[in-house]
Every structure is written in C-alpha cells, then in structure tokens.
Amino acid sequence: MSNKTILACSHCGTRNYSTVSKKQEQRLEVKKYCKQCNAHTVHKETR
C-alpha cells in the first residue's frame, strides 16, 4: 500500500516536497534542492 509522504529539509526544517512511497521501517532520505537554503540538502520524511 502506498502513502503520501512529506519531505522536510534537514537544515532549515521547511517542508518542500511530497512524494508517494511504500510503507517502510526506515524514513526516506533524499538529497534535493531547498529554496530557503538556496542549496542542495538532505530532505527527510516527516510523520
């Protein structure tokens, strides 16, 4: 089953992206561009 997940920047904490992913035990971590930081940072799944 797929769930809608929200990704937040690990540096500034803003929630920039949303994705659809399968339920996992570990949180999703993806390197994406953050408009607030003006740089590529690690974005982590929020719950």
Automatic annotation (TrEMBL):
Gene Ontology terms: cellular component: ribosome
Entry-linked InterPro entries: Ribosomal_bL33, Ribosomal_bL33_sf, Ribosomal_zn-bd
Gene encoding the protein: rpmG
Gene source species: Bacillus spongiae
Record flagged with keyword tRNA-binding: no
Chain segments annotated as coiled-coil in the UniProt record: none
Protein name: Large ribosomal subunit protein bL33
Pfam families membership: Ribosomal_L33 (PF00471)
Keywords: Ribonucleoprotein, Ribosomal protein
Family: Belongs to the bacterial ribosomal protein bL33 family.
SUPFAM superfamilies documented for this protein: Zn-binding ribosomal proteins
